[in-house]
Amino acid sequence: MRRFTLLIILALLATVPSFSQDFNLSATAGYLNINSIFKVDGQKRDLDFKSSGFFIGAQSEIALTEKIDLQPELALAINSEGDAIYIGALGSYQATEEFSVLLGPALNVILEDVVNGYQTLGIFLGFGGNYNITDKIYAQAKYHVQLNDYYNGSGGVSSKVNFLMVGVGYRIL
């Protein structure tokens, strides 16, 4: 199932250039910080599941209007808690020539085995900013808040993560 989902996403990313005349592709990499939130019966438990790592991936920018772009992204997130595939489709509003505001949905698929009662798919709302350093190089910071719950068992338990991605991109095309 995971390979099938990944193949569909890669196929979509490969066909997007044919639908848009203003398209580019970037290689991205950067720092990843994950904060786990665990609650029992609505009470937050500080289990100190903060971890850091890095991500590598690819991102494209598809111009929808003069100031609005769609930024599909596929990244591999690697950290001490486990690896995951990040799939984002954030919208970008160009506030100035160098700076853009980002907002949109993202998915996170955990690549590790999980215990019973947990699922591997996370649904997120991401927001952040993008700063063009040159025509080819940009810096980007995004924070993602999980909307669903990894735990789908009983007992009033909630298990979510929020994560920060800070990195750079290099426009290849």
Outline the structure in words.
This protein has about 170 residues and is mainly β. The chain has a single domain (about 1-170), classed as Porin (Beta Barrel). The protein is built from 1 helix and 9 strands. An 8-stranded antiparallel β-barrel has the order 1-3-4-5-6-7-8-9. A hairpin with a 4-residue loop joins strand 7 (about 120-130) and strand 8. The radius of gyration is 17 Å and the shape is elongated.
Summarize this entry quickly:
This protein has 173 residues and is mainly β.
Tally the beta strands: 9
Which residues sit in consecutive blocks of at least 5 with pLDDT less than 50?
Answer: none
CATH topology: Porin
Specify Rg, calculated over alpha carbons: 17 Å
Spell out the blueprint of helices and strands:
Layout: H1 2-15, E1 23-40, E2 43-45, E3 50-63, E4 68-79, E5 84-94, E6 99-110, E7 121-132, E8 137-146, E9 157-171
Antiparallel strand pairs: 1-2, 1-3, 1-9, 3-4, 4-5, 5-6, 6-7, 7-8, 8-9
